[in-house]
Amino acid sequence: MTSSYCADCRRPVLWTITAAGRRFAVDPDPDPGGNTAVYRDGTGTRRSRRPSDELPLMSYERLHIPHIATCPGRPAPLPQPRPAVLPQGVADFGAYQRKTKGRS
């Protein structure tokens, strides 16, 4: 199995193509706890998709874990600070949300 390596952690990854035509890295070893179905199409290209109730895992697919979920070298996203004063014309919807706790 040919794979490449993650630029952040240098672990092996398996590159797939999604239905939208984007490249998507998964861990190379199948894992029953994964949420990405990987298979090879007729040309040998590895494809990936998210199994659903409408289209469950097929017999020729194997579950893999997306590498982004296991990459130890990926920097954590920085929290975005909320501005102290909102720009003019921007409403703070948090102040208008209905309190639903305790209601059924």
- What is the average of the pLDDT values? 87
- How far apart are the termini? 53 Å
Q: Characterize the main sheet.
A: 3 strands, antiparallel
Assess the beta-strand content as a share of residues.
Answer: 15-25%
How are helices and strands ordered from N to C? Answer: EEEEEEH
The best one-word shape is: elongated
Could you name the ranges where pLDDT drops below 50 across 5 or more consecutive residues? none
How big is the Rg? 20 Å
Number of domains: 1
The largest beta-sheet arranges its strands as: 1-2-3
Specify the helix fraction band.
under 10%
Count the helices. How many? Answer: 1
Quick one: how many beta strands?
A: 6
Question: What structural class should be given to the helix and strand makeup?
Answer: mainly beta
